Protein backbone atom coordinates (compact mmCIF):
# COMPACT_ATOMS: atom_id res chain seq x y z
CA UNK A 1 0.00 0.00 0.00
CA UNK A 2 0.91 3.63 -0.46
CA UNK A 3 -0.35 5.67 2.50
CA UNK A 4 -0.32 9.44 2.14
CA UNK A 5 -1.10 12.30 4.48
CA UNK A 6 -2.77 15.09 2.55
CA UNK A 7 -4.75 18.29 2.75
CA UNK A 8 -7.81 19.44 0.86
CA UNK A 9 -8.59 23.01 1.84
CA UNK A 10 -8.40 23.11 5.63
CA UNK A 11 -8.97 19.37 6.07
CA UNK A 12 -6.05 17.03 6.73
CA UNK A 13 -6.30 13.27 6.58
CA UNK A 14 -4.74 10.01 5.51
CA UNK A 15 -5.51 8.14 2.34
CA UNK A 16 -4.50 5.26 0.12
CA UNK A 17 -2.89 6.30 -3.15
CA UNK A 18 -4.32 4.05 -5.84
CA UNK A 19 -4.51 3.84 -9.61
CA UNK A 20 -7.89 3.79 -11.32
CA UNK A 21 -8.14 0.58 -13.33
CA UNK A 22 -10.21 2.27 -16.07
CA UNK A 23 -8.63 5.69 -16.54
CA UNK A 24 -5.14 4.93 -15.26
CA UNK A 25 -5.26 8.12 -13.20
CA UNK A 26 -4.11 8.24 -9.59
CA UNK A 27 -6.39 9.19 -6.73
CA UNK A 28 -6.41 9.27 -2.94
CA UNK A 29 -9.01 7.18 -1.12
CA UNK A 30 -9.60 8.78 2.28
CA UNK A 31 -9.10 6.69 5.42
CA UNK A 32 -10.61 7.16 8.84
CA UNK A 33 -8.31 6.97 11.82
CA UNK A 34 -4.53 7.00 11.97
CA UNK A 35 -2.68 4.20 10.16
CA UNK A 36 -0.16 3.83 13.01
CA UNK A 37 -2.74 3.74 15.79
CA UNK A 38 -5.04 0.91 14.79
CA UNK A 39 -7.28 -0.50 12.12
CA UNK A 40 -8.05 1.75 9.19
CA UNK A 41 -11.01 1.74 6.85
CA UNK A 42 -11.65 3.39 3.52
CA UNK A 43 -14.44 5.94 3.89
CA UNK A 44 -15.61 5.86 0.27
CA UNK A 45 -14.43 9.43 -0.36
CA UNK A 46 -11.74 9.92 -2.94
CA UNK A 47 -10.03 12.75 -4.79
CA UNK A 48 -7.67 13.00 -7.71
CA UNK A 49 -4.07 13.00 -6.54
CA UNK A 50 -3.45 16.19 -8.54
CA UNK A 51 -6.21 17.96 -6.57
CA UNK A 52 -4.75 17.41 -3.08
CA UNK A 53 -1.67 18.77 -1.36
CA UNK A 54 0.62 16.01 -0.15
CA UNK A 55 2.07 16.60 3.32
CA UNK A 56 4.85 14.83 5.18
CA UNK A 57 3.39 11.33 5.56
CA UNK A 58 4.11 11.27 9.32
CA UNK A 59 4.87 13.75 12.09
CA UNK A 60 7.68 11.96 13.96
CA UNK A 61 8.73 12.71 17.51
CA UNK A 62 12.29 12.55 16.17
CA UNK A 63 14.25 11.82 13.03
CA UNK A 64 17.18 9.50 13.71
CA UNK A 65 19.88 9.58 11.04
CA UNK A 66 22.69 7.24 10.14
CA UNK A 67 25.76 9.02 8.80
CA UNK A 68 28.66 7.70 6.74
CA UNK A 69 26.78 4.63 5.52
CA UNK A 70 28.10 4.53 1.94
CA UNK A 71 31.84 4.05 1.39
CA UNK A 72 32.02 6.44 -1.59
CA UNK A 73 30.28 9.16 0.43
CA UNK A 74 32.68 8.64 3.34
CA UNK A 75 35.57 9.14 0.91
CA UNK A 76 34.17 12.37 -0.57
CA UNK A 77 33.45 13.86 2.87
CA UNK A 78 36.57 12.72 4.71
CA UNK A 79 37.88 16.25 5.28
CA UNK A 80 34.68 17.17 7.13
CA UNK A 81 33.36 14.00 8.74
CA UNK A 82 36.41 11.75 8.95
CA UNK A 83 36.84 8.09 8.10
CA UNK A 84 34.34 5.25 8.34
CA UNK A 85 33.70 3.76 11.78
CA UNK A 86 32.99 0.21 12.92
CA UNK A 87 29.70 1.24 14.51
CA UNK A 88 27.00 3.38 12.82
CA UNK A 89 27.30 7.15 13.22
CA UNK A 90 24.02 8.42 14.67
CA UNK A 91 22.68 11.97 14.83
CA UNK A 92 19.24 13.56 15.22
CA UNK A 93 17.12 16.03 13.35
CA UNK A 94 14.37 17.77 15.32
CA UNK A 95 10.75 17.16 14.39
CA UNK A 96 10.54 20.81 13.32
CA UNK A 97 12.95 20.08 10.45
CA UNK A 98 10.36 17.84 8.78
CA UNK A 99 8.75 19.20 5.62
CA UNK A 100 6.46 17.79 2.98
CA UNK A 101 7.34 16.36 -0.44
CA UNK A 102 6.72 19.65 -2.28
CA UNK A 103 7.37 22.18 0.47
CA UNK A 104 10.18 24.74 0.08
CA UNK A 105 13.62 24.26 1.56
CA UNK A 106 14.55 27.51 3.30
CA UNK A 107 18.15 28.57 2.75
CA UNK A 108 19.33 30.16 6.01
CA UNK A 109 21.15 33.46 5.68
CA UNK A 110 23.90 32.26 8.05
CA UNK A 111 25.01 29.54 5.64
CA UNK A 112 26.87 29.96 2.37
CA UNK A 113 26.55 26.31 1.34
CA UNK A 114 23.42 24.17 1.68
CA UNK A 115 23.74 20.59 0.38
CA UNK A 116 21.27 17.90 -0.66
CA UNK A 117 21.53 14.32 0.59
CA UNK A 118 19.00 11.90 -0.92
CA UNK A 119 18.12 8.92 1.27
CA UNK A 120 15.86 5.95 1.91
CA UNK A 121 13.88 6.46 5.12
CA UNK A 122 12.26 3.90 7.42
CA UNK A 123 9.03 4.61 9.33
CA UNK A 124 8.76 2.84 12.69
CA UNK A 125 5.52 1.02 13.53
CA UNK A 126 5.56 0.55 17.30
CA UNK A 127 7.39 1.53 20.49
CA UNK A 128 10.61 -0.46 20.48
CA UNK A 129 13.84 -0.81 22.42
CA UNK A 130 16.67 -3.34 22.19
CA UNK A 131 15.39 -4.89 18.97
CA UNK A 132 17.46 -7.91 17.90
CA UNK A 133 18.51 -8.06 14.25
CA UNK A 134 16.14 -10.93 13.53
CA UNK A 135 13.14 -8.90 14.77
CA UNK A 136 13.87 -5.71 12.81
CA UNK A 137 11.08 -6.33 10.28
CA UNK A 138 8.55 -6.42 13.15
CA UNK A 139 9.07 -2.71 13.92
CA UNK A 140 9.04 -1.37 10.35
CA UNK A 141 5.76 0.15 9.21
CA UNK A 142 7.06 1.10 5.77
CA UNK A 143 9.51 3.13 3.73
CA UNK A 144 9.60 6.63 2.30
CA UNK A 145 11.95 9.12 0.60
CA UNK A 146 13.97 11.78 2.42
CA UNK A 147 16.42 14.61 1.83
CA UNK A 148 18.87 15.15 4.68
CA UNK A 149 19.51 18.82 3.86
CA UNK A 150 22.72 20.08 5.44
CA UNK A 151 24.37 23.47 5.92
CA UNK A 152 27.77 22.08 5.00
CA UNK A 153 29.85 25.09 6.01
CA UNK A 154 28.26 25.12 9.47
CA UNK A 155 28.83 21.39 9.84
CA UNK A 156 32.53 21.96 9.23
CA UNK A 157 32.69 25.06 11.44
CA UNK A 158 30.75 23.67 14.40
CA UNK A 159 32.60 20.31 14.56
CA UNK A 160 29.25 18.69 15.37
CA UNK A 161 26.11 18.45 13.29
CA UNK A 162 23.10 19.66 15.24
CA UNK A 163 22.82 23.18 13.82
CA UNK A 164 23.86 22.18 10.30
CA UNK A 165 21.22 19.45 10.10
CA UNK A 166 18.48 20.97 12.21
CA UNK A 167 17.12 24.05 10.44
CA UNK A 168 13.38 24.18 9.78
CA UNK A 169 12.59 22.52 6.41
CA UNK A 170 15.87 20.56 6.37
CA UNK A 171 14.13 17.15 6.26
CA UNK A 172 11.61 16.86 3.41
CA UNK A 173 10.01 13.40 3.39
CA UNK A 174 7.35 11.72 1.29
CA UNK A 175 5.51 11.53 -1.00
CA UNK A 176 3.86 8.70 0.97
CA UNK A 177 4.73 5.60 3.00
CA UNK A 178 5.06 2.41 1.01
CA UNK A 179 4.27 -0.74 2.97
CA UNK A 180 4.74 -4.38 2.10
CA UNK A 181 8.42 -4.29 1.08
CA UNK A 182 10.66 -6.88 2.68
CA UNK A 183 13.97 -5.82 4.17
CA UNK A 184 15.70 -7.66 1.35
CA UNK A 185 13.78 -5.61 -1.22
CA UNK A 186 14.45 -2.35 0.64
CA UNK A 187 18.18 -3.12 0.60
CA UNK A 188 18.38 -3.14 -3.18
CA UNK A 189 16.72 0.09 -4.35
CA UNK A 190 18.11 2.85 -6.56
CA UNK A 191 18.53 6.27 -4.91
CA UNK A 192 18.76 9.20 -7.33
CA UNK A 193 19.00 12.95 -6.71
CA UNK A 194 18.64 15.61 -9.38
CA UNK A 195 19.03 19.39 -9.28
CA UNK A 196 16.95 21.18 -11.93
CA UNK A 197 16.70 17.84 -13.73
CA UNK A 198 20.44 17.08 -13.75
CA UNK A 199 21.49 13.86 -12.01
CA UNK A 200 23.82 14.54 -9.07
CA UNK A 201 23.53 11.33 -7.03
CA UNK A 202 23.01 7.77 -8.25
CA UNK A 203 23.46 4.89 -5.82
CA UNK A 204 21.78 1.77 -4.48
CA UNK A 205 20.84 0.78 -0.97
CA UNK A 206 22.75 -2.46 -1.60
CA UNK A 207 25.84 -0.29 -0.99
CA UNK A 208 24.99 0.23 2.70
CA UNK A 209 27.91 -0.29 5.07
CA UNK A 210 25.47 -1.03 7.91
CA UNK A 211 22.34 -2.92 6.85
CA UNK A 212 18.78 -2.18 7.95
CA UNK A 213 18.63 -4.79 10.75
CA UNK A 214 21.98 -3.56 12.03
CA UNK A 215 20.87 0.07 12.04
CA UNK A 216 17.64 -0.66 13.89
CA UNK A 217 19.34 -2.94 16.41
CA UNK A 218 22.09 -0.41 17.10
CA UNK A 219 19.82 2.63 17.49
CA UNK A 220 17.36 0.81 19.75
CA UNK A 221 20.20 -0.44 21.94
CA UNK A 222 20.28 3.02 23.55
CA UNK A 223 17.11 4.81 22.39
CA UNK A 224 13.39 4.01 22.36
CA UNK A 225 11.78 4.54 18.97
CA UNK A 226 8.10 5.46 18.86
CA UNK A 227 5.41 4.88 16.22
CA UNK A 228 5.97 7.28 13.33
CA UNK A 229 9.60 7.98 14.14
CA UNK A 230 11.74 8.14 11.02
CA UNK A 231 15.15 6.53 10.52
CA UNK A 232 17.29 7.96 7.69
CA UNK A 233 19.70 5.37 6.32
CA UNK A 234 22.51 7.47 4.84
CA UNK A 235 23.28 9.04 1.48
CA UNK A 236 25.34 7.84 -1.49
CA UNK A 237 28.21 9.77 -3.05
CA UNK A 238 27.58 12.91 -5.07
CA UNK A 239 26.28 15.34 -2.45
CA UNK A 240 26.60 18.97 -3.38
CA UNK A 241 25.20 22.47 -2.99
CA UNK A 242 21.90 23.92 -4.12
CA UNK A 243 21.22 27.61 -4.61
CA UNK A 244 18.12 29.70 -4.05
CA UNK A 245 15.76 29.14 -6.98
CA UNK A 246 16.91 25.59 -7.76
CA UNK A 247 14.71 22.53 -7.36
CA UNK A 248 16.14 19.36 -5.84
CA UNK A 249 14.36 16.04 -6.40
CA UNK A 250 15.07 12.74 -4.66
CA UNK A 251 13.74 9.48 -6.07
CA UNK A 252 13.91 6.07 -4.46
CA UNK A 253 13.00 3.18 -6.71
CA UNK A 254 9.47 1.81 -6.04
CA UNK A 255 8.80 4.54 -3.44
CA UNK A 256 8.35 7.77 -5.42
CA UNK A 257 9.86 11.24 -5.68
CA UNK A 258 10.01 14.36 -3.54
CA UNK A 259 10.74 17.71 -5.22
CA UNK A 260 11.54 20.81 -3.18
CA UNK A 261 12.54 24.27 -4.38
CA UNK A 262 15.16 26.21 -2.43
CA UNK A 263 13.99 29.65 -1.34
CA UNK A 264 15.53 32.43 0.71
CA UNK A 265 14.24 32.78 4.23
CA UNK A 266 12.63 36.17 4.73
TrEMBL record:
Coiled coil: none annotated. It holds the Pfam family Rv2993c-like_N. Residues 1-57 form the Rv2993c-like N-terminal domain. The keyword Transmembrane helix does not apply. Signal peptide: none annotated. The keyword Transport does not apply. Keywords: Metal-binding. GO terms for molecular function: acetylpyruvate hydrolase activity; isomerase activity; metal ion binding. InterPro entries: Fumarylacetoacetase-like_C, Fumarylacetoacetase_C_sf, Rv2993c-like_N. GO terms for biological process: carboxylic acid metabolic process. Residues 62-263 form the Fumarylacetoacetase-like C-terminal domain. This is 2-keto-4-pentenoate hydratase/2-oxohepta-3-ene-1,7-dioic acid hydratase (Catechol pathway). It comes from Nocardiopsis flavescens. The lineage of its organism: Bacteria, Bacillati, Actinomycetota, Actinomycetes, Streptosporangiales.
